From TrEMBL, chain A:
Subcellular location(s) per record: Membrane
Family matches, as InterPro entries: Plno_GlcNAc_GPI2
GO terms, molecular function: glycosyltransferase activity
Domain of life: Eukaryota
The protein's name: Phosphatidylinositol N-acetylglucosaminyltransferase subunit C
Pathway(s) annotated for this protein in UniProt: Glycolipid biosynthesis; glycosylphosphatidylinositol-anchor biosynthesis
Family to which this protein belongs: Belongs to the PIGC family.
Predominant location: membrane
Keywords: Glycosyltransferase, GPI-anchor biosynthesis, Membrane, Transferase, Transmembrane, Transmembrane helix
Membrane topology: Multi-pass membrane protein
Gene Ontology BP term (one): GPI anchor biosynthetic process
TM regions (residue ranges): 43-69, 75-95, 115-132, 144-163, 170-188, 194-211, 223-241, 247-265
Organism whose genome encodes this protein: Grus japonensis (Japanese crane)
Automatic annotation (TrEMBL), chain B:
SUPFAM superfamilies hit by this protein: NHL repeat
PANTHER family in alphabetical order: PHOSPHATIDYLINOSITOL N-ACETYLGLUCOSAMINYLTRANSFERASE SUBUNIT Q (PTHR21329:SF3), PHOSPHATIDYLINOSITOL N-ACETYLGLUCOSAMINYLTRANSFERASE SUBUNIT Q-RELATED (PTHR21329)
Transmembrane intervals: 572-591, 642-661, 707-726, 733-760, 766-788, 809-833, 839-868
InterPro entries membership: 6-blade_b-propeller_TolB-like, NHL_repeat, PigQ/GPI1
Gene3D superfamilies, sorted: TolB, C-terminal domain
The entry's keywords: Glycosyltransferase, Membrane, Repeat, Transferase, Transmembrane, Transmembrane helix
Cross-referenced Pfam families: Gpi1
An annotated Gene Ontology molecular function: glycosyltransferase activity
Swiss-Prot/TrEMBL NHL repeat ranges: 140-168, 311-341
Record-given protein name: Phosphatidylinositol N-acetylglucosaminyltransferase subunit Q
Native organism: Grus japonensis
Length: 292, 945
């Protein structure tokens, strides 16, 4: 069908027009746009953000190394408990000091609730520690190691690094870490060891990331320093256990914090997304008010 | 029929009017007809008068036509409802077609079937609308018709195709052939030339085409410019009629020219015309979907509303050549059969409504078609001459002869006697004919006398049977006084054993769904005969030594002496029953007393199977001791069955008791019981020791294993000490309990089952502990697994939702989850072992209960009858053809077919108190897996609810 010269084609469906259904006019390709949603990254910013991954890797590393020392009997549980207690108290003070108590006021959580949680936690762990010690007696050590490794890997995968993705589940991540720590703690020689180990796991997997997040938001410079110090501590600890492991771990950390951001920015150049009127419709308006 | 005075006056008036019209017109015609031949003028008749007369005559003719039509047809005469053979799975019936042989073809909305029904509504054949070779390729027929060559053709609107079913393929089943693509066919028909007519709904056309032998379409023509044609039907003039959706019905000629539309011709307004068809007189019938009517449009006269009510959504209509009108009612999903012209089809209908004069005509016409059956008792074959008395079953044209009355008799006395018999037995016994048994050659005078008897006892027809000498072949004839057709009808003589037929009880086929109507008719025919003989039992009570005014020959029982004992027992049974009832009411009163209803006791009663069995037997005794007479055969048999089963049960119980109490067997039993219980306990201890080690190399939690093992060992220790405490008393207890065997074998078996339950109580306890522990773990694990994933069970919405937990909740939940997960194998093993032990005990108890059930439910009296007097329970009859001679009636011997063993048991099975396991196998497995308790106890209370 030939377009009638007198009438202009309109992109509407509610009017009968003398054009075939698949007709478009010359404006069609004029609306073509490329890489609309692409974001430009700065190298330094990306390196800064990768700090979260480095931190979590180092946490796992420090936990495993600590367990190693405990298992080998080179670290007394009392000593570890003392160090952990002191660092926890320090962290607790720091947590409120960093933002001047603004976060606490917002969440409305009292210190009594904190104390209660701590007590419940300590009581349960202490009460169950004899059970934990004998829990996996009849199961072979290799099975326990494999299970713990899988669980820690799952912890790293599902951890909330700040990205907005479906796979992220901080609950599952934390539960997997606790499971792994309970498994590993059940291999330790005495129930006190198991108690201290589980406590330490809670501090490093549950409390430490909270403090990190706050530090990152409030004082970025300080956060970089803490990250570097933490990574160095982890490396030092690993080096005392296995030098090959330390070398490999160093290269992994470097790759994550330097190589991966570089690759991301490099490959950004080859991005080629096209957008235009053929895209499916997007609802931009916030519809939640209609749901009420 | 309404015979009021007013109606009769109306009738008279109508007839008089028509008759006067006829006379006047004939007279006028005779005067007027010479006008044409002679040259005379028209007298004083003016042109105006002729015109006026012509106009009036025209309207008069119309009125007469209307009156004729209205006299001829009958409104809303529903004869039958045939349910949709497809069932209610698909939509309602839509298309219908009636072929010349009277079979009906039916399609339903969105159902891939074409059903062929007989004129009475039985499904003769079901054609699945599925393309051969492609299993999944079904189509949905909209309307159906039958071609000249007898093949089924359907219109398929979904695929826009016409299909023809070719039954003559190499495949035995036949196949569907797609003959033509049409836009959207709805109605289909075949015109008088054999061409297929298709109404194309969307294009507004009616296509007509012929079909050759290779299923090629020829001579395609189309009629355009129709507004949504739906149904199409051939018209009497060689053309066709088509109905338009929410429009008109149009009639076309054979050359496809529009002849007229019905609304303009008859001045009729349609709502939504649906099915159209043409009856044998050439009138067009139209179903109106909106107004829910069916109208008939005669060639002359105004339309007649044949069906005005009882339709919900009429779709297709069809007329059979027998004058029936079939309306497919999609709203009620059935085919309704109407008889709009009953006057024409009266000869096929039931005669009850017709008058006496018609009745004679009906009989004579019917008898020519039907043979007369005479059921003759074989015990009367040597009776002396006399008259036959019995019952005439006019629907079946058969005579059941019950007895022979000998000469000499006084007719009045016979009539009196018969009326008395009739009053007592409620069977219409009458004199049916005469019987002559002449040892010598035939006497002329006697036969005349016998014929004369027919005038005294008027019966229609009068049956005359005569036996000559010792001849096997009797001559048989009937006399029709009122009939004007001298046709010789055929007679079949059926001999029956009066005693057996009287005593037997006919079991009509129960599965009426599968048996056809014809079979059911046969069964009712037979049951009428059985009924007649059984009801006239009173007639047979008089024995041959009775000196009454009338001498009869029929079956007589010989065992008069034995019956004295029976009479005595009957007399004695009444007080015995009363005594029993009194006793029973006392016992049941005690049982129902409130003292026994308190919680621990009532709980105990419900758990002991002995109590259940005793209650069941108590009910049985109550049923037996009811003083009233059993109302029907089923109740009688039930009573007898209960009585015999009770007797045999008690007899077996006493036998068992006598065996037990001889040679101190009770003592031996008691001596062996304690060691057996000890042995079981020891075995269990060994099993627990094994479980406390590392059984089968399983990864058990040592600490929990030890705890559980010690717990159970302590239980067994307790148990053994109790048993030993009991051991001195066991013999005494057994001795007293054994006495209860005199109440019946079933009671003894129930006691055995209870003893087993008591002796294995420790196993039950272990099972309960294991199951509870396991159940707790399973539920805990499943709930904590949700927490582990950050989800929770939403009780309100019955689904799993995501949830954000606190840190301490997460920690404790995961800690418990880990602990429960590692402890699960230990608990599961204990649970498994004890469940297996429990199941073993349950199976043993179940077998005992099965035996009890068998004894309780087996209808022993019926089985004894089936073994010894198989004719008492008849499933039907069979006829054996006896020797035959030309010119003499066919002789058959009726023998009774006994009921098969399976159906005896099925019919007379006694109900039992126990219901079979509530759970199906799948739910049982699920319960076992989840650790829910399974009870073998019978749930009587549940069943009663």
């Amino acid at each position: 069908m030939e377009p009638v010269p007198g009438r202009r084609w309109q992109k509407v469906l509610y009017e009968r027009q003398p054009f075939p259904d698949n007709y478009v006019d010359q404006r069609f390709l004029g609306e073509l746009r490329k890489n609309v949603h692409a974001r430009r990254y700065r190298y330094q910013a990306v390196v800064f953000q990768s700090g979260a991954v480095v931190q979590q890797l180092c946490s796992v590393c420090i936990f495993v190394v600590t367990w190693w020392y405990m298992d080998a009997g080179m670290l007394s549980p009392q000593g570890l408990f003392g160090v952990a207690l002191v660092s926890s108290l320090l962290g607790y003070v720091l947590f409120d000091a960093v933002d001047g108590g603004a976060g606490r006021r917002e969440s409305g959580r009292t210190r009594w609730a904190d104390l209660k949680s701590t007590l419940v936690f300590a009581a349960f762990t202490y009460g169950f520690s004899p059970v934990l010690k004998t829990l996996t007696e009849s199961i072979s050590t290799d099975t326990i190691y494999a299970m713990s490794a899988l669980m820690l890997l799952g912890h790293l995968i599902f951890f909330d690094y700040g990205a907005n993705a479906a796979i992220v589940s901080s609950t599952l991540s934390l539960n997997m870490a606790i499971f792994a720590s309970v498994c590993l703690a059940s291999r330790l020689p005495r129930s006190l060891h198991a108690f201290v180990m589980v406590t330490f796991a809670m501090q490093i997997f549950a409390l430490w990331p909270m403090l990190q997040k706050k530090l990152k938001a409030q004082t970025p410079r300080c956060y970089v320093g803490v990250t570097v110090l933490f990574a160095l501590a982890a490396l030092a600890g690993l080096a005392t256990v296995s030098s090959v492991g330390a070398v490999l771990f160093t290269s992994l950390l470097l790759a994550i914090s330097c190589l991966c951001p570089y690759c991301l920015i490099r490959f950004q150049l080859t991005k080629d997304n096209i957008h235009g009127p053929w895209d499916e419709a997007e609802i931009k308006e916030d519809l939640s008010r209609f749901l009420m | 029929m309404d015979y009021t005075l007013e109606t009769s006056q109306q009738k008279e008036k109508l007839l008089k009017t028509i008759y006067t019209l006829q006379l006047k017109s004939i007279a006028t015609f005779q005067t007027a007809s010479p006008l044409l031949s002679s040259q005379r003028g028209m007298g004083m008749v003016t042109q105006h008068q002729v015109h006026q007369l012509a106009d009036k005559a025209k309207s008069l003719c119309e009125d007469l036509d209307n009156v004729k039509n209205l006299l001829h047809y009958c409104q809303d005469n529903l004869v039958q409802r045939i349910p949709n053979p497809t069932g209610s799975r698909y939509g309602g019936v839509s298309g219908i077609h009636c072929s010349l042989d009277g079979s009906i073809y039916v399609t339903a909305e969105s159902a891939p079937w074409v059903h062929v029904l007989s004129s009475t509504g039985q499904t003769l054949r079901s054609l699945s609308c599925r393309q051969t070779g492609k299993e999944s390729d079904t189509f949905l027929p909209e309307d159906v018709t039958v071609t000249r060559t007898g093949m089924v053709a359907v219109a398929d609107m979904m695929n826009g195709a016409i299909w023809v079913f070719n039954p003559h393929t190499s495949l035995s089943k036949g196949e569907w052939i797609k003959i033509r693509k049409v836009g959207s066919p709805r109605g289909i028909g075949v015109d008088s030339m054999g061409k297929i007519l298709v109404a194309d709904y969307a294009q507004g056309q009616v296509h007509s085409f012929a079909l050759d032998y290779a299923f090629k379409t020829l001579n395609i023509h189309s009629v355009p410019n129709l507004q949504g044609p739906r149904y199409v039907s051939p018209a009497p003039n060689g053309g066709f009629v088509v109905s338009e959706e929410c429009g008109d019905v149009k009639v076309f000629t054979s050359s496809r020219k529009l002849l007229c539309s019905l609304s303009s011709k008859y001045g009729h307004r349609f709502g939504n015309p649906a099915g159209v068809c043409v009856d044998m007189d050439g009138s067009i019938l139209v179903a109106d979907e909106q107004r829910r009517t069916v109208h008939l449009f005669p060639e002359r006269g105004s339309p007649v509303c044949l069906v005005s009510t009882r339709l919900r959504r009429p779709a297709g209509v069809a007329c059979s050549s027998f004058g029936h009108l079939f309306v497919a009612d999609a709203g009620e999903n059935c085919v309704k059969v109407f008889s709009p012209a009953p006057a024409a089809s009266r000869s096929n209908r039931s005669p009850e409504a017709a008058g006496v004069a018609e009745r004679a005509v009906y009989h004579s016409s019917r008898i020519a078609a039907m043979v007369l059956k005479v059921f003759f008792p074989s015990c009367c074959s040597s009776a002396e001459s006399g008259i036959l008395i019995g019952r005439w079953i006019s629907e079946q044209n058969s005579a059941v002869i019950l007895a022979v009355v000998h000469f000499p008799f006084i007719p009045v006395q016979v009539k009196q006697y018969l009326s008395e018999v009739q009053r007592v037995t409620k069977v219409s016994v009458s004199v049916l004919g005469s019987w002559s048994n002449s040892k010598q050659e035939k006497e002329e005078s006697l036969s005349e006398f016998l014929e004369d008897l027919g005038t005294i006892f008027s019966h229609e027809p009068w049956i005359q049977i005569s036996k000559e000498g010792d001849g096997k072949f009797w001559s048989c004839s009937t006399l029709q006084k009122h009939s004007n057709s001298p046709k010789e009808e055929e007679i079949i003589l059926v001999y029956y054993d009066q005693r057996k037929v009287m005593l037997s009880y006919l079991h009509p086929p129960s599965d009426t769904a599968t048996s056809t109507d014809h079979k059911a008719d046969d069964a009712s025919e037979l049951s009428a005969i059985f009924d007649t003989v059984a009801k006239s039992r009173i007639l047979f009570m008089t024995d041959r030594y009775d000196d009454g005014p009338i001498k009869l020959t029929h079956w007589q029982s010989d065992g008069v002496e034995a019956s004295i004992i029976v009479e005595l027992m009957k007399q004695a049974s009444v007080p015995a029953c009363m005594l029993l009832t009194l006793l029973l009411s006392l016992i049941s009163g005690v049982c129902r007393s409130r003292v026994l209803k308190f919680w621990p006791l009532s709980f105990l009663w419900s758990k002991l199977s002995t109590c259940e069995q005793l209650g069941h037997r108590l009910q049985h005794l109550q049923v037996i001791s009811i003083n009233k007479k059993a109302q029907n055969q089923t109740q009688l048999m039930r009573k007898a069955n209960i009585f015999v089963s009770l007797l045999i049960d008690v007899a077996l119980g006493i036998l068992l008791m006598s065996w037990l109490y001889r040679k101190n067997r009770i003592g031996h039993l008691a001596d062996t019981l304690i060691p057996v219980a000890d042995h079981v306990a020891e075995e269990l201890q060994d099993l627990l020791q094994w479980l406390m080690g590392a059984p089968a190399g399983l990864k058990m939690n040592r600490a929990l294993d030890q705890v559980l093992g010690r717990f159970f060992l302590y239980h067994i220790h307790l148990w053994i000490s109790y048993i030993h405490l009991m051991s001195p008393f066991i013999e005494m207890i057994l001795w007293y309990v054994g006495l209860s065997a005199c109440l019946g074998l079933t009671v003894a078996l129930c006691i055995l089952s209870d003893i087993i339950a008591l002796l294995t109580f420790h196993i039950y306890c272990f099972y309960v502990y294991g199951a509870r522990l396991y159940c707790l773990k399973i539920y805990g694990l499943s709930s904590l697994w949700r927490l582990f994933r950050g989800k929770k069970w939403n009780v309100l919405r019955q689904r799993v939702d995501s949830c954000s937990y606190d840190l301490d909740q997460l920690f404790i939940g995961t800690l418990l989850f880990t602990i429960l997960l590692f402890l699960l194998p230990t608990t599961a093993l204990y649970y498994l072992v004890f469940t297996l032990l429990r199941l073993l005990v349950v199976i043993v108890q179940g077998l005992i209960h099965l035996l009890v059930d068998l004894i309780d439910s087996l209808p022993l009296y019926s089985i004894i009858l089936w073994l010894c007097r198989s004719y008492r329970l008849a499933a039907g009859v069979k006829f054996r053809v006896l020797e035959q001679q030309d010119g003499k009636p066919l002789r058959l011997l009726m023998q009774i077919n006994p009921l098969s063993y399976g159906s005896v048991v099925q019919t007379y099975r006694l109900p039992t108190y126990s219901c079979y396991p509530k759970d199906s196998w799948a739910s049982l497995c699920k319960k076992l897996f989840l650790g829910e308790l399974i009870y073998p106890w019978k749930h009587k209370g549940d069943k009663q609810d």
